[in-house]
Structure formats: structure tokens, C-alpha cells
């Protein structure tokens, strides 16, 4: 596993709000739905800040912070995707 990707996943986990931890999901589907919802919210927030920065409504620090958060979220999704593909390939290699 690429060290850069694992660090991205850790950084993303640390940026999430520690004040109000999420309850555990009841099923894998609920967990995936929550994960993808958080991902889309992060990207939307980054787009809003970028749009505001282009019109002069946000400072450069907020833009850099939003872009870093978005990049961390994308790196996390890429890592999860790679793990899912790896697990699927491992299942295909199993003897029947």
C-alpha cells in the first residue's frame, strides 16, 4: 500500500469532527451511504469556497484549506476503491 494514500486516509479521519462522533451504522449499505454522503458534502463545500474565492468572498487561506480537504477526501475514496477492487480480485482467485 502506498504510504501517501494511508496518510491521506488518516488525515481525512482526523479532519472529521471529533466533538460529535457518528454512531455506528446498522449495515454495510448504511455505512457506505454515510461515507459517500460525507464525501459529497466535502466536495460541495470545497466548490462553494472556490466559487466564493473567485468572486472575492473568501480569503485565500479558506480556499487552500477547502482544496486540501477535498483532495484528502478524493484520496480516501481512491484508497477505498482500490481496496474493494483488490478484495474482488482475491475472491475471483479463490477455488470453487
From TrEMBL:
GO terms for biological process: bacterial-type flagellum-dependent cell motility. It holds the Pfam family FliE. Its main location: other. The keyword Thylakoid does not apply. One of its GO terms (cellular component) is bacterial-type flagellum basal body. Residues 8-20 have a biased composition (Low complexity). Residues 1-27 are annotated as: Disordered. It comes from the Bacteria. Coiled coil: none annotated. Keywords: Bacterial flagellum, Cell projection, Cilium, Flagellum. GO terms for molecular function: cytoskeletal motor activity; structural molecule activity. It is found in: Bacterial flagellum basal body. PANTHER family: FLAGELLAR HOOK-BASAL BODY COMPLEX PROTEIN FLIE, PTHR34653. Belongs to the FliE family. This is Flagellar hook-basal body complex protein FliE. It comes from Pseudotabrizicola algicola. The gene is fliE.
Amino acid at each position: 500500500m502506498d504510504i501517501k494514500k494511508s496518510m491521506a486516509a488518516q488525515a481525512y479521519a482526523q479532519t472529521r469532527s471529533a466533538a460529535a462522533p457518528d454512531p455506528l451504522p446498522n449495515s454495510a449499505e448504511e455505512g457506505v451511504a454515510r461515507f459517500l454522503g460525507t464525501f459529497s458534502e466535502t466536495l460541495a463545500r470545497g466548490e462553494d469556497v472556490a466559487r466564493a474565492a473567485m468572486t472575492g468572498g473568501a480569503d485565500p487561506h479558506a480556499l487552500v484549506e477547502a482544496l486540501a480537504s477535498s483532495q484528502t477526501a478524493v484520496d480516501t475514496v481512491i484508497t477505498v476503491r482500490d481496496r474493494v477492487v483488490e478484495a474482488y480480485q482475491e475472491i475471483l482467485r479463490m477455488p470453487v
